[in-house]
Design a protein that fits this description.
The complex is a heterodimer of chains A (71) and B (136). Chain A is mainly α and 71 residues long. Chain A has two helices and no strands. Chain B has one domain. Chain B is elongated and about 45 Å long. Classes of the chains: A mainly alpha (71), B mainly alpha (136).
Amino acid sequence: MSDERHTRQLVGSLLVAALIVAGAILIVTLQFGSTSTAEQEAREERLEQRLDAEEERREEQQDRREDGGER
Amino acid sequence: MEDFVESLTRGNPTEVKVLLASVALSLGCYQLAVIAVAYGKVRLGFLDAAPASTAHRAVGDTIALLLLCTGVMCLSVYGFEGAHAVFGTALLVMLAIKVSVVRRDFGLGRFLPALGISVFLLLCATWATSAGAFLT
């Protein structure tokens, strides 16, 4: 077998290995979900805003109930 | 050491460990295919036995490095605990034996296929008891 053929096949085999590594990283990273700090912070902020809004609504309802009871 | 690993992985040692182990496992599957060609069990028109054997050695060195890094991270952050640690230790010991036989032979060359399959099975077991459980 010629040296050139050997080298070509070897490089091809290593390229396939590199593609497998890239694929594995892609699949596992997708499984983890986003690791972007900005995105995580935005998600936490949205959650906080939703909790605040729920809390306000609850307080308003309680106030209305109390007002209705006083009348 | 734990602080070093935490800072190196930016506080995500588990995720990095899972990623490294998953890459090692996927390359391990590729190794099975390549060594089958190198031993002549599978014949492919586009890949001869000699380059397949060289590629197997190169990819194997990469896997060994990945496993060593993963093992050090695992021990420094989580310590030695449970079946995962037992499989991981057995894997590194078996890998060390295989590499020694590849480099020095010791008259044990005929056991290389069995050693290789044992390394692969131990890698599967180690991955399944940690990364597999984490990902599913």
